[in-house]
Amino acid sequence: MLLNISRDLLSVYIESDRLEYAQDFGRWVEHAFLWMPYVEGIPQFVLNSVVLLSISVILNSGRCLEKPAFVFIANLAVSDLVMCLIQIITLLLRLQLQLCESRICRLQNCQIQLSLWTFSLSKSLLCTILITVDRYIYITKGIKYSLIVTKSWIVVGIAVSWLAPIGLGMTSFLIQDDHTRSETNCISTHLMPKLFVAFGISLIIIVLFSIYLLYGVILVKFYRQKKSLERAKSKSQSIRFKGFATDSQLLLTSSPSKSFPDLQNTWRNFKKKRISGEFNLIFQTLKKVCRFIHAAQYVIVLIAVFTIAWLPWLMVLYFDVFDENFKVFDRLCTNETRPLEGITSPIDLDLSNLQRNFQFVIANPQERIMMDVPNGADLPICTFIHQSLHSFMQDYRQLSAMLVGILNSILNPIIYAFWYPEFRDQCRNVSCPRYRVTFPIM
Questions:
Q1: What per-residue confidence (pLDDT) applies to 356?
Q2: DSSP code of residue 442
């Protein structure tokens, strides 16, 4: 039989405002996704390439970067460069998807797209949490930092940050459901088992919670230090710091700069005289205080950027699983029982083909589609329309969340590298040999 799908038929079951919104939203996201490699990919490629080039120049100049933070920064930059390549590949696959006629072609195309995005997003998350843990240890455990973050710890961390995403990407490719309800558009919550989707949601939640917890501890310690300095006000106050062997008294006022007016020169003189022991401990403690003071604003901005980048993706996945499990579109059709005429069995119905034509009508409201519906399923028209609209909207919601998430990769080199004082200082040392920084505070 022939089913006449037009805008008039859709408006019988769906409000006109909702159809207009779906049309405008889909058109906007489609254009944004087509421009993504240019608007987001080029800045992302340039910034991360500059980071890797800067680290290479510093190493070639004969300087030894002892701090593991530079290794983790380079690892994150490589990860973001890989995401640039994946953006181009998935864009080509998405264009090819529109040309696929068979269901098998569409399914294989979606499998490749979703596995690449699974690898890319999980890689970015793990690299971020790795560098977050490193910053937390460096700021809060400054004296013991070199004892905790060893070379073996670095190797294991980088290996896990690559091997785990590769495993997740391969798993998402192999376990995708091959069912007759596979939509034309690639929707992870529809093509993957619910357990795997729940695992992906849990991974994002765990990373967000870890970010908030670790940086929250830094903020708490910062405000405690700030409160301690404010209590001193205009008068001097002697604060006791317990060392490894003896106790040391450190004189502080309300301003650290007044307590130690020429800290860098003092530190340079002590290094020339090779003075060590408990006085070194005092300076290490002071560096720790300075880290907290300078890290507070940095932490707040980083948390805000990370939340804005990843929270939309988390919400899209959650609400799609919610809609699927509770069949929201079925409840909208409780009083509609008319099946498609002539359809009695669900065996041969290719619902993805029906939904693809439905989505074409939404995107092109002046068009009219005459579809040859096989003898296949007892499917009410209303349920079919709401299922198709749900798939149409969910696909573009995921794409829009992905566009926002990729912004995090553009900001990563700015936040983790160019805003990192020692990274800037090393670059200045190479570009201007007369300039030297001997007392990094972060």
A1: 60
A2: -
CA distance 433 to 423: 15
Phi, psi values for residue 6, rounded to 5°: -140, 175
Q: At what angle do helices 278-326 and 381-412 cross, to 10 degrees?
A: 170
pLDDT of residue 64: 55
Element (H, E) at 53: helix 42-60
Distance CA 411, CA 435 (A): 28
Q: Measured between alpha carbons, how far is 77 from 125 in angstroms, rounded to an integer?
A: 13
Amino acid at residue number 441: I
Type and span of the H or E element at 203: helix 194-232
If pLDDT is split at 50, 70 and 90, which confidence band does 439 have? very low
- Number of DSSP helices (H) and strands (E) in the chain, helices first: 16, 4
| Domain made up of 2-431: CATH architecture | Up-down Bundle (1.20)
Residues 308, 326: Cα–Cα separation, whole Å: 28
Measured between alpha carbons, how far is residue 423 from residues 200, 408, 429 in Å?
33, 20, 10
Between residues 42 and 237, the one the model is more confident about: 42
- 234: tokens are 């205009």
CA gap 38, 166 in Å, rounded: 26
Q: How far is Cα 147 from Cα 84, in angstroms, rounded to an integer?
A: 36
Secondary structure of residue 247 in the 3-state scheme: strand
Cβ burial of 265 (10 Å; 0-12, 13-18, 19+) is exposed
What pLDDT band is residue 330 in, cutting at 50, 70 and 90?
low
**pTM beyond 0.85, yes or no:** no
